[in-house]
Amino acid sequence: WTKYEGNPVLPNQGIRDFRDPKVMWYEPSQSWIMTLAVKDHIEFYDSPDLINWSKLSDFGIDAGNHGGVWECPDLFEMETDDGQLRWVLLVSINPGGPNGGSATQYFIGDFDGTSFTNEYDAEKTLWLDYGTDNYAGVTWSDIPEEDGRRLFIGWMSNWNYARETPTVKWRSAMTVTRELELMENRDGEFRVTSWPILEYKDLVEEETSIPDTTFSGSLMIAEREALIDFTLNLDLAETDKVKLSLYNDLGDSLHVLYDQTAAELAIDRRASGIVDFEDGFAAVHTAPFSAIEDELRLRVMLDWSSIEVFVDGGIVTMTDQVFPRKPYSKVQVSSNGRLGLNGQIRALRPIW
User: Fold this and answer.
1) Measuring CA to CA, how many Å separate 136 from each of 176, 191, 209?
2) Residue 291: which of 325, 340, 344, 328 has the closest Cα?
3) pLDDT (mean) for 216-236
4) CB of 131 within 8 A of CB of 268?
5) Which of 229, 261, 232, 227 is nearest to 333 (CA)?
6) Is the model's pLDDT at 170 over the cut of 90?
7) Which of 70, 66, 102 is nearest to 89 (CA)?
8) What average pLDDT does the structure give for the chain?
9) DSSP symbols for 121-170
10) How many angstroms separate the CA atoms of 50 and 16, rounded?
11) What is the Cα–Cα distance from 201 to 214, expressed in whole angstroms?
């Protein structure tokens, strides 16, 4: 629901508790907008009292990805660093994701209180996350105006295997909370970026810096069994392929790969641990990405059963579940040439 009073719709003015009559007030010029997913498209409705609804418009019948059912929409306004305003419409889809099964697409454009206008070609699909385990996410309403952030959290699973994951007493989790921002890419088009919120710094128990290093072959950068959050700045001037490997002494291995020639980021979880509970789980997931000026900024948040990858400020993200038989205890970087790097490794404490 979005409160609408005149033009444009006011952001962050949703109902705190519609059962409380103290927060229910209506004026002749005010209405409430509902964004509703209807099988393969979005419908917009308005109401003066949250009881009687009138349909306003449709969107998406001929736009975006239609590989599955549309659901869990979210509509909000965002502002760029230079003051430009755009409306963003999140729509989860299952199946039809870029690497199979569940995923979240989004649209950027304008909403005038009646209809949403897509800024880009109808056949263009923008993905919030290219991994297979960030689905049905929503953003918070009523973030204080003085804070101003748009905060997002997603369901870390995929309907391809959500009922089959090899866990006991729990069934998947949520992604880390992320701040969404609207940024202009190198082609002059807007994209929604996502980045872990600053508050995760409060979980840091220990931080180790990786000094400027240039090497050929491989380099061990961490040896510990812990939840870790690390950032690497990679100089690709003398190499075009980089691999970040996480593994344990049982032979489980998880890899994050970047190929500059193919302009592709990937997560390889084929040997990541327990993978045989679903036919498609053991796979390589890919995302289109090309580093700028031979520099790659990579951030990885690793939990016991998940990896979340962010590159270049969150312009591309990948989230995958993994089920190692024992926590990964070693982190190694390798390349097919000379690689320069520096960074930070942060050990995190659990939140419970």
Assistant:
1) 14, 19, 36
2) 340
3) 92
4) no
5) 232
6) no
7) 70
8) 91
9) -TT--EES--SSS-EEEEE-S---TTT--EEEEEEE--TTTTTT---SS-
10) 13
11) 28
